[in-house]
Amino acid sequence: MERPEEARLPDWARDxxxxxxxxxxxxxxxTGTQVAKDRIIEIGxxxxxxxxxxxxxxxxxxxxxxIPPEATAVHGIRNEDLLGAxxxxxxxxxxVEFLEGCDLAGFGLLxxxxxxxxxxxxxxxxxxxxxxxxxIDAKSIFHxxxxxxxSAAHRFYCGTGFTGAHSATADAEATYRVLLGQLxxxxxxxxxxxxxxxxxxxxxxxxxxxxxxxxxxxAMFAFGRHRGELLRAVRIADPEYLEWxxxxxxxxxxxxxxxxxxxxxxxxxxxxxxxxxxxxxDPAQARLPFPASPPAKPPIxxxxxxxxxxxxxxxxxxxxxxxxxxxxxxPS
Length: 332
Prior knowledge:
By secondary structure, this protein is an alpha/beta fold. The protein contains eleven helices and eight strands. The chain has helices at 11-16, 69-75, 88-99, 109-124, 138-145, 150-158, 168-185, 193-200, 231-237, 239-247, 252-262; strands spanning 2-8, 23-30, 40-48, 53-60, 103-106, 135-137, 212-215, 218-221. Helix 6 (150-158) crosses helix 7, helix 9 crosses helix 10 (239-247) and helix 10 packs antiparallel against helix 11. The longest helix has 18 residues, at 168-185. The termini are far apart. The relative contact order is 0.08.
């Protein structure tokens, strides 16, 4: 591991969580999110000792596979940044030594970082024992103590709970109010459907399961042995792969795209032509109860009659409303 740094944590940290052995807080940057297939490209460890001293270690490693553009968009690490970096196997032994006798912590440790790290040690042929260590996942605590469900979102963005939770219509109404609350709270969010679609789908999938993603205007594989390759190129180099997709356990959407590609027809990326809408000028618009009604139009002032015109009696009979006369009033 490289870049050793040592510092001391504040005294109150030891009072909050007394340690009887070192705690290693881990974070990984990787080529993707598939634990079984993706590789580590950067490891960061903060090792906290019982007396309050802590050490930091950071090491970049060559994953042995290309870094997909969508991964680089997250952590900013490019293939050329790892030129000359060691493989994980070359630093595995020193990492095991650094983590010896430590409990482990992380954010998403149990579902991602630790399983992926153990896979890397297995590939390197280096034993890394987890049994006997205490495992602390800050993400698990976060989700336990700060629920991320619709009721919690409604309290956060709308200021109140809501009745009828888990009734489909009540949940749909609450979701719409939450969306309005988010748009009101975050001025940098786009106020158009196209912009919100892009914000919610930073990696825009070609098929419904995002097995194919857009690379420029071309469909690119996001899984399997042709990951990072364009669909058009795979059709030429390995058409059997597309036939395998058509016969495999994939969505009908992906199978349709594979069949069309074999016939020489490729998907084209839809354009998002409508311009970005501006945020509503009056934030009170988004605070209206569901469903929000359009603001009432101001009344049009009536023309004043000439001074010598006959004034109607206050007791005169008024004409019936337009809907009582069989339809809307028509302009003369």
